[in-house]
Amino acid sequence: ARCGARNVVEGTARAFRAAAASSPELGFEVPVWRRSDGFWVVSEDATTGRVFGANDNIQSSTWSTLSALRTTVGGHPMARLVNDVLNPYGMSRILFIDNKADRHVHTFFDLLDSYAGKTRYVSKDYFAAKNTAVEAHKRGYVTWGYYYDRNMTAFAATQSRFDLLGLNYSAPAADFLIMRATGKAVIAHVITTPSSASTASCKGASGYMVSGVKQVVPN
Length: 219
Prior knowledge:
The protein has helices spanning about 15-20, 50, 65, 80-90, 105-115, 130-140, 155-160, 175-180, 195-200, 215, and strands at about 30-35, 40, 95-100, 120-125, 140-145, 165-170, 185-190, 205-210. It is α/β, with parallel strands linked by helices. Strands 2-1-3-4-5-6-7-8 form an eight-stranded mixed β-sheet. It is globular, with a radius of gyration of 17 Å.
């Protein structure tokens, strides 16, 4: 998850380099936001405060503002989707790319199509998002929708948007059973330890979204 957020500072080029070095088969989760100048940066949050201290709104900021930021731990710059992810890894890795705002979907997929597109990228969304998943299916992308157990009341009405499903590993086994009954693969999140991976496996998870890469992923 976010390229080993438990081990290195998330949303940075260093995080992607560390994840790449840990395993040649590891896929990357890439949460992105579109800046006001039309380019995309990597961030789980809509604002920069949690990771960078200075609390700027990414969607209303330009690169001249965001490029000056450094993480409060380690002093690393923010990663850019094109320069730090697609250029070095976009043709060789499986990428789960999350358009966090669920906006600008045409330009988002135009960009992905200009690299490996649907052959290597999975369109990831929180279950409540819709626009990105709809456009992804139009263009032939595989979609992954992730849920928490608190969201299961909305599962029946939303799961058709997604080809793959996600659920927090600590959710009740009954919720995993409901998801598995659709015939779709269920990827457990967020896995930080071998114990959490074992818990997810026992509940029927088909794969893991991992934060603790060093702890869980074999070298």
